[in-house]
Design brief:
131 residues
Length: 131
């Protein structure tokens, strides 16, 4: 998993929407694919423009995430989101302003209103207590 500091530097270095797009597509290749068995309705995020699946495992109070999407751009965004929260306790994740963190990553120009709704749904699931 790409660490948040390195990823932030990479995305903040982008000078255009095209640079950001290329960087996100490159990042998307670092996200391990989920198996067909993991791509269930239970794991699917509702409200996303593209299909997105998110699996949250919790062990000893620490959250671990797996995610996938059928869209390369969204897979890159998932890498960015997961770099912020992977390996953290739920209480720490809940105290984070994830929308502000994403804005710092230069992603706001890329998030269309329909895509932004999906991102919000992902962030809500990440910050929600275990189901």
């Amino acid at each position: 998993m790409t660490d948040a500091i390195h990823l932030k530097t990479q995305l903040q270095a982008c000078r255009s929407k095209e640079d950001t797009f290329k960087t996100l597509v490159t990042l998307s290749k670092t996200l391990p694919r989920l198996t067909a068995e993991d791509k269930t309705e239970v794991n699917k995020i509702k409200g996303c423009e593209s299909a997105v699946w998110l699996i949250i495992e919790e062990s000893h109070g620490i959250r671990h995430f797996e995610a996938d999407s059928d869209a390369k751009l969204m897979r890159g965004v998932l890498v960015a989101i997961l770099s912020l929260v992977e390996g953290k306790a739920l209480t720490d994740i809940q105290q984070m302003d994830l929308k502000a963190e994403l804005a710092e990553l230069n992603l706001s120009s890329y998030l269309t209103s329909s895509r932004a709704n999906g991102i919000l749904a992902i962030l809500e699931k990440i910050q929600a207590p275990k189901q």
